[in-house]
Structures are given as C-alpha cells and as structure tokens.
Amino acid sequence: MLPTFAGSTRVCPALYAAVALLAGTAGGATADRFGAKRTLAASLALLATAFALFPLVREPWHGFCLAALVGLANGCFWPSYHALLAAITPAARRHAGYALQRVSTNLGFGVGGGLAGLIAISAQPGTFTALFLVDAGTYAAFLALLVLVPAGRTMQRPRGQASGYRLVLGNRVFLALLGLNVLFVTAGYAQLETLPVFAKNETHVSERGIGLVFLVNSLVIVLAQLPLTKLVEGRRRMAMLGLMTVLWAAAWVLVFGAGLWLSALAATAVIVIAGGIFAIGECLQGPTQQALIADLAPDHLRGRYMALSTSSWSIGWIAGPALGALVLQQEPLALWPAAAGVCLAAGAGGLLLERRLPAAVRRTPGADFIPRPVEPATEAAAEGMTARASG
C-alpha cells in the first residue's frame, strides 16, 4: 500500500481540503433541513467507513476517493457539530459549552498525536493499518455516544420568511465577522504551521524544542480555558477578541525577537513563552466567537451560519500557510511583524464592528443574564437599515 500511495500524499490533503470547503455549505443546509444530530451521525458514519477502508488502498485513485470521502464527511461534521452544541446548550451557557469543546479538542489532539507516535512506525507498514483502524474506531465510538445526546430544540421557518443562504448572506454584520475571522486564522492560527520551519532554520531550535512549544501551548489551553471562560462572562465580546489579537501580536513579536537576537536554547525558551501567550489568546476566542455566531443565527438557519463560519476557518488555513511560506522564502524575519500587524488591524476592525452588533449579543452572558425575546438576525438587519438610513 505505502509505495503506491506515497506518490499521492501531496495531492490527497489538497483534495481533502477542497472537498471539505465545498461540502460545508451543503452540510449546513442539510443540518437545517434534516437536523444537526442526524447530519452529524451521517458524517461520523462516513468518517468511520473511510478510515476503515484506508488499509485497503492499492492504487492512487483509491486514496483520492477516500480522501474526497473524508473531506465530504468533515465538511458536514463541523457545521452540524457546532449547530447541535448550540441547540442543546442554553443561550446563557453557550460560551461555556464552546469552551469545553475547545478543551476536549486540544486533549484529543494531544492524546491522538501521542498515540500515533507510539503506534506508527514507517519501517513497519502494518502499524499504519492499526492506526487507521483505531481512528475508525474513535469515530464509531463517537457515533455510539451520540445516541445519548438530545436533538435539541428546533424551530421551523416562519411562514412568509425567506430561507436559504440568500438570507444568511444578507446579514452584513455576520459577513463582516467572518471576514475578521479569516484574518484571525490567516495571521494567527495558520502561522503556527510556519513556526516550526522558522524556528528550526532561523533560530536553530531542535525538534524536541519545537515539540515543547506545542506541548506548552496545548497545556495552557487545557489548564486556562475554564478559568478564562469565567473571566469573560459579562464582558464585551469584541473587546475580548481585541485582547486576543493583542496577545497574538505580542507572541509574534517575541518570535521575531528570538529570530533577530537569539539562537538554540535561548530562542527555544522565548518561543515556548510565545506559544503560551498565544494559547491565552486562544482561550479568549473559544468562549467568545463561536457563541456569538450561534446567538446571531436564527434557529432554522443555524446550520448554514455554522457552515459559513467553518468555511472562513478553511479559507484562513489555506491562505495563511501559503502566504507564510512565501514570506519565509523572501525575508523570514518580516513574517512575524507582518502577522502581528494584521492581528492588531483585525482586532481594531472588531471594535469598529461592535456598534453594529445587536445589543443583546454584545456581551458574553453572565450570572445575571436574562434572555431577550429578540430575533438576532432581525435585529441585525434593523440596525443595518438604521445605519444606512442615517448615512
């Protein structure tokens, strides 16, 4: 399997990403029409099937087909997952629900990466078969546990009200928030992909040092996410996202300083600190941004809102590493001040957007939260009309 599939390893990830990006919109619409839980169950079944079939790959086209199937399943997974989480969580506690999701995701990455390192041995192809089957088993276990999860509250489309992506795309506040998220991911998260190359080539950080950076980053998220979730309660959401960008900019400035003045162990220490600071910023975004999107979305369109949100992440993850690699080739040290500047600009843009947000969603709910009977999309549209009329 491995010799045949090796020549296709560069194509399959790109195919997977492209299919996932295209499938996301259909996944969101499916979640709205048939229910987030059903869509999530279907995506988990496809993922379990695809990974169980990977050991049977014998020709390149086998790998392409399975990569496309994984992309299709993942494209449906995230919109339905986030929509279901919003549906089963009270509005006052959505931020806590998304914070717990961030913690579990980081634990999963850490445990999964560790297990993969223990199981997979390149000189023994059979170990990859075991790895694929373990991966398939985790999706099957998730599918079994999903039976215990309620479907959540659903709401039918009001009579006479438009539906579909046309209505979602008419929410200019939401689209602006997605644009900001593309910048957050491009200049923030995605540059974690270029950091190992820079650290190794420019500051001579060892592979173990690079691993330590990501270990500390994950540990900080796991340990600090819940306390910081409590901290953001009652505070302005866009201000918290602005603080996130300040922390990310500070992290990239530290990386720049390490590349400019330090090397080896000293650079490792500084970049590890930068990774920890970046993680604190991630902890501010976790309970803030996704809950805000869930609050902006009407119940009957939440899957579509989550699908476009997922697409904004995908675009950032595609653009960020490509732009980062381009800058690294030309002038490695220029990447980090540029990324810091984009982060700060995005944070400033968020503060400007704040006044366009419906008043009911501007702050993360606190202990004294009282739900307001206002349809977020309707209020957003009304505020947009007022702003255009006054302009």
- Main sheet record: none
Q: With helices defined by DSSP (H or I, 4 residues minimum), what is the helix count?
A: 16
Could you estimate the helical fraction of the residues in percent? over 70%
Are there runs of 5+ residues with pLDDT below 50, and where?
1-9, 376-391
Verbal overview:
This protein has 391 residues and is mainly α. The protein has two domains: 1-148, MFS general substrate transporter like domains (Growth Hormone, Chain: A, Up-down Bundle), CATH 1.20.1250; 162-362 and 375-391, MFS general substrate transporter like domains (Growth Hormone, Chain: A). Helix content is 77%, strand content 0%. It contains 16 helices and no strands. Helix 11 (237-261) packs antiparallel against helix 12. Residues 1-9 and 376-391 have low confidence and may be disordered.
Task: Describe the protein's topology.
Layout: H1 2-6, H2 11-34, H3 36-53, H4 60-88, H5 94-119, H6 126-146, H7 165-169, H8 172-189, H9 191-202, H10 207-232, H11 237-261, H12 264-285, H13 289-296, H14 302-330, H15 335-353, H16 376-390
